């Protein structure tokens, strides 16, 4: 006869690594050529996404590593498909020698980075998790933009003219 016990079965606290949403085929930042790290050659970019209210709208930011030149890319939402469409349009509008590589964080919006590379020819490198200093210029710009557009703002309500005014300030 088996009697019931009052104690629950003990389970280990760590359930392993959560692999949902991990980006396949990432090229790590430590593989990046040293001339990109020196910030001497133009054509290398740092990218990120500023998400609007409920992830329903987004703006991509591209900052030149040498020049500090800023490109804002308005997107429908914060999905990987929108990121590929927006960033490929921005990168393809530049001369080839000014669009060589992009360094990005490990956000899920870059899950289709292979497709972006195929459309633009731009090599994409990924930073380590929780390492914003590896894209310092971009993070600083995003902080400045957030002064005018705090979290929870619906970014789809702003026109291109408004973005220009934010940058000038």
UniProtKB/TrEMBL annotation:
Protein's UniProt name: Transposase
Cited Pfam families: rve (PF00665)
Integrase catalytic domain segment(s): 38-169
Stretches for region Disordered: 1-20
Species whose genome carries this gene: Pseudomonas savastanoi pv. glycinea
CC terms in the record's Gene Ontology section: cytosol
GO biological process terms on file: DNA integration; transposition
GO molecular function terms attached to this record: nucleic acid binding; transposase activity
PROSITE patterns: INTEGRASE (PS50994)
């Amino acid at each position: 006869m088996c009697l019931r016990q009052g104690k629950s079965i003990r389970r280990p606290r760590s359930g392993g690594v959560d692999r949902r949403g991990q980006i396949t085929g990432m090229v790590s930042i430590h593989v990046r050529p040293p001339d990109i790290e020196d910030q001497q050659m133009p054509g290398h970019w740092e990218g990120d996404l500023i998400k609007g209210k409920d992830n329903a709208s987004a703006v991509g930011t591209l900052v030149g590593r040498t020049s500090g030149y800023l490109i804002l890319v308005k997107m429908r939402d914060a999905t990987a498909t929108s990121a590929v469409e927006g960033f490929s349009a921005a990168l393809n509008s530049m001369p080839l020698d000014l669009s060589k590589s992009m360094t990005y964080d490990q956000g899920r919006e870059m899950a289709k980075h292979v497709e972006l590379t195929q459309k633009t020819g731009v090599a994409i490198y990924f930073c380590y998790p929780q390492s914003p200093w590896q894209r310092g210029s971009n993070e600083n710009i995003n902080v400045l933009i957030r002064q005018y557009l705090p979290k929870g703002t619906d970014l789809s309500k702003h026109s291109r003219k408004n973005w220009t005014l934010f940058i000038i300030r």
